[in-house]
Design a protein that fits this description.
The protein is α+β, with helices and mostly antiparallel strands. The protein contains 4 helices and 10 strands. The strands form 2 sheets. Strands 1-2-3-4-5-8-10-9 form an 8-stranded mixed beta sheet, with no helix packed on it. Strands 6-7 form a two-stranded antiparallel sheet. It comes from Uria aalge (Common mure).
Length: about 210
């Protein structure tokens, strides 16, 4: 990620709300401590530094995942980075069960270019991104294909963690094609299969009503 943000590594910032104290240690973890004298006061991890949240060539937040277990899943936290006069944890909420949202203010993100992804990449990955932009401009890849290439670039750069399970799920669901070439290839393959099935039906004397060219 952005090298200037590494100045925050090794430091921790706390925020107290009601009976809870939240502590955010950039590039390390997020913890929650119940401020009470009960013998079983809660103290635990809400997430460990995992990956960046990237939108429109911009680092918009940090994902802290694999925290303490919570029912059937692990606690996780998204830390939003916003411009502020000093480094401080400004706001904490829990938008959904065991998924927390933190707002961290810092002067390190006030410059309009401070959170751009492209400048943090190696020359090789920047070239790969440039090529993808050109392919998209020339309409040789779809928007989905472009996003897939970007995701691969971010994973290669170590900004995002590759999750094999999710990729398998996406393959099952997605019926779009990244390139026209792949679409044509798939179409020819399916046409052959349909032809075989039509022949099989004819052999068994089963009438087939199909619209020509369908």
């Amino acid at each position: 990620g952005p090298a200037h943000l590494f100045r925050l590594a090794g430091k921790c910032f706390s925020f107290v709300e009601s009976t809870y104290k939240y502590e955010f240690c950039p590039f390390h973890n997020v913890t929650q401590h119940e401020q009470t004298f009960r013998w079983n006061a809660y103290s635990g991890i809400l997430g460990i530094w995992h990956e960046w949240e990237i939108e429109n060539n911009t680092f918009v937040g940090m994902w802290m995942r694999e925290g303490d277990s919570c029912e059937t899943k692990s606690r996780q936290t998204k830390v939003h980075l916003v411009c502020g006069k000093s480094n401080k944890l400004a706001y904490v909420s829990e938008p959904s069960t065991c998924v927390y949202s933190l707002t961290f203010e810092t002067p390190l993100v006030c410059h309009p270019h401070s959170l751009l992804v492209y400048p943090t990449l190696t020359e090789a990955l920047q070239s790969k991104w440039d090529e993808a932009e050109q392919l998209l401009y020339d309409e040789l890849i779809t928007d989905q294909g472009y996003k897939k290439i970007l995701k691969e670039i971010f994973q290669e750069a170590g900004l995002l963690k590759a999750t094999e399970e999710k990729e398998v799920e996406n393959k099952k669901i997605s019926l779009e094609f990244e390139t026209v070439e792949k679409c044509n290839k798939e179409y020819k393959q399916l046409s052959k299969e349909i032809k075989k099935l039509q022949d099989l039906l004819s052999q068994h004397g089963i009438a087939y009503k199909g619209i020509s060219g369908e």
